[in-house]
Amino acid sequence: MNLEQWRSLTVKQLDQEAKQAAELHQAQLTKPPGSLGMLESLVVDLAAMQGTVFPRCDNVHISIFAADHGVACQGVSAFPQDVTAQMVLNFAQGGAAVAVLAKQMGANFEVINLGTVKPTMHPGIINQIIAEQSGDISQTAAMTEEQLLQGLQAGKQAVDRAIALKSKLFIAGEMGIANTTSATALLASLLELNAEDVTGPGTGVSGSRLEHKASIVAQALTLHQGINDPFELLRCLGGFEIVAMCGAYIRAAEKGLPVLVDGFISSASALLACKVNPEVRKWLLFGHCSAEPFHSKVLQELDVEPILMMGMRLGEGSGAAMAVSILRAACELHSSMATFSDAGVSNSGE
Ligand SMILES: O=C(O)c1ccc[n+]([C@@H]2O[C@H](COP(=O)([O-])O)[C@@H](O)[C@H]2O)c1
Ligand SMILES: Cc1cc2nc[nH]c2cc1C
Question: Which atom of ligand 1 is found nearest the CA of 83?
Fold first, then answer.
């Protein structure tokens, strides 16, 4: 697929009949209308996406995309670059936070290494290496157009695997030391904001190190200024995992697979996917608001009410994975609560 084909993909329409039927059913349940708050709107949104009055989140697919970033050499992270590859192994061995949550919820779980500087072989790792790392965005473009297409394709393939496994909900997670620098530059460029106003701690940089990180973001923005096209922005300022998540979100919207977006970096991919095709937004739910300060502004831009707010800032899809229990509870309430007539409870609304 070329970029023009990616741009012209048609997003699947939501099922309005299923949505209305879910709303009607919701109104019959033994509770004052609206009293379950967001648990009600979430299940109605899911009904419209899954095309059924009684949606479920039993079969969740979690794809973790990992990649190294050339800009890590600028000292923008609190951790060394080798951690990306080390964590890839940790995902595959089940020790990473999101791997634990995936096991707990019985999700399909996979880790895709798109390019890390010190990779390790393990049967649980899908190696789709695009390059050892993306280019240092403060000095050059992150990748070539061909690499961009490879990244988008990796995301598409993950969604296709999820669909083949009959998943009902897709979560993309990411791992990449220095990827908050890349995501911050992308978002600052999209929202036309200054680097110093939006650069946050990521894995935990503070003080003069944080000022330095903001200056690197500013340098990247100056080098790649005046770009309006979302794919060109991704090519210049992205990273392979950020590109793959963008491709996954677009593919999921095309095929009608509901997506639960994770934190700061995933939201940058989501915003870019929505810039490519605004209809993609209809297929996205948002798991949480990250503690990375600029995330709340990004969520506002996307007109999002996130499910959770727990001060998490781990990435890996972990915030979205935590929100699955809320979605499951919403589905269970919707399908198992008694109706007013079943239970012989007076419905004053009638
Ligand atoms: O998703 C988030 O909200 C988030 C916020 C801060 C950090 N992270 C994770 O931390 C790593 C990037 O942080 P940094 O400081 O190396 O740019 C990367 O692996 C992300 O998954 C993730
Ligand atoms: C240990 C560690 C785990 C992570 N998971 C996602 N980003 C991460 C960054 C670090 C440093």
Answer: 19
% the chain with pLDDT above 90: 99
| 164 within a domain of the structure (yes/no) | yes
Q: How many distinct structural domains can be found in the chain?
A: 1
14 in any annotated domain: no
**According to the model, what pLDDT value does residue 348 have?**
76
Q: Looking at this protein, which amino acid is placed at residue 236?
A: C
Which whole number is the average pLDDT over 32-60?
98
Q: How far is the CA of 320 from the centre of ligand 2 (A)?
A: 16
The 3-class SS string of 283-302 reads HEEECECCCCCCHHHHHHHC
Q: How far is CA 281 from CA 5, 11, 13, 267, in A?
A: 19, 10, 11, 11
Q: Show the ligand 1 pocket: residues with CB < 6 angstroms.
A: 77-79, 174-181, 202-203, 262-265, 290, 292, 295, 313-316
**Residue 81 sits in a domain of what CATH number?**
3.40.50.10210
Range of the domain at 57: 51-336
DSSP sequence for 83-142: HHHHHHHHHHTT-SHHHHHHHHHT-EEEEEES--SS----TTEEE--S-SSB--TTTS-S
The answer to whether residue 328 scores a pLDDT higher than 70 is yes
The mean per-residue pLDDT over the stretch 278-307 comes to 97
In a domain, 38, yes or no: no
* Structure confidence by residue, pLDDT tens digits, 227-271: 999 999 999 999 999 999 999 999 999 999 999 999 999 999 999
* Separation of CA 137 and ligand 1 centre (Å): 17
**Which atom from ligand 1 is nearest to the alpha carbon of 266?**
1
Q: Is residue 5 part of a domain?
A: no
Q: What are the pLDDT digits (tens) for 299-312?
A: 999 999 999 999 99
Q: Is 70 helix (H, G, I), strand (E, B) or coil?
A: helix
Mean pLDDT of 51-60: 97
